[in-house]
Q: What sequence folds into this?
DNA sequence: CCAGTATTAGAGCGCGTTCTCCAATACTGG
DNA sequence: CCAGTATTGGAGAACGCGCTCTAATACTGG
């Protein structure tokens, strides 16, 4: 990405850092996330994202090579940020505590990051990015590995095995159920109410008790 | 919709039915649903829908006034078809049987109608239609009334009251949980496995028992 | 101060999309 | 057979979109 216009024939000139960026990559991604949260994929046109942060459209294409690449990087960043808190909760040594905390981390995170929650919960990757850029399919392939491993490890410690049925049960309880609980509120644009957390706790306890 | 080109000045001529349609509305909607299920909203262009059923694009605009109107009618039709089976199950006199059957009706319906399930579960109305046509916002406003009423009635009979907490619990158990249970399978393009039904039954029993 | 470089800045191209338009067509009831 | 009408069929206009391109610009280390 960086140094795209540099002619390699001039040799390894290591000096000169160049003009500093007025519109850093994360600022652009923030703008895209906001437009996406407000108006869906159709609203996150390149010119709209540029206008939202006061940048020329050329700057977006200088930093990201294409619209798909921009949205793909936003997707990776958003998934990573959510998974960080989910995995941290799931790492608690006490199994029941880990399960309930991880599940409740979903509504908590949605309250703290409403725009990113809308990006993550209201859109599928395929319809957001369209054609996933080849240079990012390495990251895509391993995106869910950490969560999958943590769920398998949790299942193994809880049941002594990580067979299909047990893993499916844990995935349902810790991933699908919390998503189900918050989705209508995220879609409505309001913070999930406190009763959501109670329902999630109760459901997780019933399924994994 | 019909008779759009008729000049009202010629008076009430009630004879003549006109040329029969080679591409009825439901055929067009079926094509749109298939493209939508396979490739998302971006794949359901008017020319693509027309090509999918071998019709000229003009026929789509003759029957539906616009792409938004076409997709809006597809949305209404799909929601209605799903709700019919959900409500039928929820109408069972035995409360527990009604609850479990209604919840399990979701994975059952997804297996029977995979394309429509993808339309309904994988896309939100706002991003599918864009600008909802004014002539259909009457139907939109009452779309969920029947389900809302049935859920409220079920809650009232079960708890003696349809207060916010109880209604939220029933909605979570009978709507959100089944949707969450099938979603990953519908998104993956495979029929929800039988264990989904078992998890849904168990969750509903735990939440409403 | 200078050479080198990354970035800004914005005008504009090409493409795919929705939608319009009109003649031709195939059926109706009488 | 006829008048009336809904529908087909397809070409193309109008528009918005992603993306490209070139010059100007604002920094860097030496």
A:
């Amino acid at each position: 990405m960086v140094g795209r216009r540099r002619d390699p024939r001039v040799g390894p000139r290591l000096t000169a850092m160049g003009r500093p960026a007025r519109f850093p990559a994360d600022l652009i991604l923030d703008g895209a996330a906001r437009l996406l949260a407000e108006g869906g994929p159709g609203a996150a046109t390149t010119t709209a994202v540029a206008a939202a942060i006061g940048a020329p459209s050329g700057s977006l294409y200088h930093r990201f090579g294409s619209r798909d690449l921009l949205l793909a990087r936003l997707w990776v960043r958003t998934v990573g940020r959510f998974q960080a808190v989910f995995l941290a909760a799931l790492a608690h040594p006490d199994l029941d505590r880990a399960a309930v905390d991880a599940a409740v981390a979903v509504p908590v995170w949605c309250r703290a990051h409403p725009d990113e929650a809308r990006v993550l919960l209201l859109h599928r990757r395929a319809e957001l990015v369209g054609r996933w850029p080849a240079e990012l399919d390495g990251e895509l392939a391993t995106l869910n590995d950490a969560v999958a491993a943590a769920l398998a490890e949790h299942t193994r410690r809880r049941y002594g095995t990580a067979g299909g049925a047990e893993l499916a049960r844990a995935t349902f309880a810790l991933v699908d159920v919390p998503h189900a609980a918050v989705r209508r509120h995220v879609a409505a644009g309001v913070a999930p109410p406190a009763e959501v957390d109670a329902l999630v706790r109760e459901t997780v306890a019933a399924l994994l008790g």
Notes: The domain at 22-208 of chain B is CATH 1.10.357.10 (Tetracycline Repressor; domain 2). Residues 1-13 of chain B have pLDDT under 50 and may be disordered. The interface with chain A takes residues 40-42, 122-124, 126-127, 130, 165, 168-169, 172, 176-177, 179-181, 183-184, 187, 195, 199, 202-203, 206-207 of chain B (CB under 8 Å).
